[in-house]
Amino acid sequence: MDRPVISFTAVYLRAKHGYIGFVEELPGVNSHGQTIEEARANLQSLAAVIFDLERAQAKELLAGKDVVREGFSVAVAPIA
Questions:
Q1: From residue 67, how far is each of 32, 58, 59 by CA, in Å?
Q2: Which among 41, 40, 44 is positioned nearest to 12, based on CA atoms?
Q3: How many C-beta atoms lie closer than 10 Å to residue 22's C-beta?
Q4: Other beta carbons within 10 Å of 43
Q5: 12 neighbors 40 (Cβ within 8 angstroms)
Q6: φ and ψ at residue 46, rounded to 5 degrees
Q7: Confidence band (pLDDT; 50, 70, 90) for 1?
């Protein structure tokens, strides 16, 4: 099954020992790396793990219940 691709805004801050990255739209999803490339890769991996964990928890919570699942879209302002 193809996985949906959604876009977020990653922000990287230069720090004393490399870069700190976070996702503006996903509270608590942040990481770091010695290089911006490492910080980016770590952030992308972490975001994927978070989505997988949230989906697994939702599946467990909803098991055996009558639910409606559907795609959900939100229009947002462009990055300034």
A1: 38, 11, 11
A2: 40
A3: 19
A4: 25
A5: yes
A6: -65, -45
A7: low
CA–CA separation, 51 and 18 (whole Å): 26
Q: What are phi and psi of 57, to 5 degrees?
A: -65, -40
Q: Where are the alpha helices (DSSP H) in the chain?
A: 36-62
- The C-alpha torsion from 3 through 6 and 8 to 12, rounded to 10°, is 30
3-state secondary structure of 6: coil
Report pTM: 0.78
Greater pLDDT, 79 or 31: 31
Q: Which tokens hold the place of 78? A: 């462009």
What tokens does 34 get? 């010695």
In contact, 47 and 56? CB cutoff 8 Å:
no
